[in-house]
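Look over this one:
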Amino acid sequence: MIYYSRGDEVTRYEKAAKLKDTDFKQIIGVKRKTFDEMVGVLREAYDAKHKRRGRHAKLPIEDQLFLSLKYWRQYVTQKELAYEFDVGEATAHAVIVWVEDTLVKSGKFSLPGKKALVEDAEIEIVLVDVVESPVERPKKTTKMVFWKKEAAHHQNAIDCQPKNQRNYLHGSR
C-alpha cells in the first residue's frame, strides 16, 4: 500500500509513528530512537546540500530512510522499491547510496570493528558460509542443436504447404 502526504491519507512515517516500540523495531529494523537520530543526521546533510538552491527530493527524508532500511534489511530489488515508493529505479538507487554515505560519514552508526568484537564477551559471533553455485542445466551438444533446427525447418515446410496440394516429400495428399 502506498501512502502519500496529500489530502487525508496517512504518510508512511505517520503510520509507523503509531506503532509500539517493539513493533517499530520489528517492522522497520531499528529502534525508534536510532531512527530519529538517523533522520536528524540525514536532515542536516540534506539542508546543507540544498542550502542555496537545488531541486528538492520527491520523497521526504523519513521515506528515504525507510526505502534504504528496507533495501538493506529485506534485500528487495531496487525496481520493487521504485514501484512501492513511486519513484524511478535510478532515484531509488541514488537515495540508497546517499543515505548510506551520509550515515557512514556521520560516524554515529558504524558497526564495531573486529577488535571490539573479539574483546567483548557478550557479543556472540555467528559465521554463515554462503557460496554461490551455478545453475545445473543439461549441456547443449551440436547434435541436439542441429536436430532441433532440422525439426523446426521440417515443421515450417509442412505448415507452409496448402492442404489440397500433393506433398512431394512424402508422396501423399
Observations:
- The chain has eight helices and no strands.
